[in-house]
Design goal:
84 residues, two-stranded antiparallel ribbon, 55% helix, elongated, mainly alpha, 2 strands
């Protein structure tokens, strides 16, 4: 049955299937990324360098403390926000 299909058509079908699989994989990987919902919290950092490792750790620690306190939702997969 497949041998009756011309070679050009088989090649086109193979390329179309490959591209479809790659696009579906890329969309799936993007959809599975973890994102944080909008949340407001305060951080007091006494470092003089913005963006320093200590400041980033303080921000991360404050976020997880806010999540543990129930004031913010934990991160979700990106696709969960697409549902509305």
């Amino acid at each position: 049955m497949i041998s009756q299909i011309p070679a050009d058509t088989r090649r086109l079908l193979l390329v179309a299937c490959t591209v479809t699989a790659l696009v579906a994989g890329a969309i799936g990987a993007f959809a599975a990324q973890s994102v944080r919902p909008d949340c407001s919290y305060s951080v007091l950092s006494l470092t003089s360098e913005p963006g320093s490792a200590e400041q980033e750790e303080a921000i991360e620690r404050a976020y997880w403390q806010t999540v543990a306190a129930g004031n913010c939702e934990p991160p979700h997969a990106r696709w969960q926000f697409w549902r509305g």
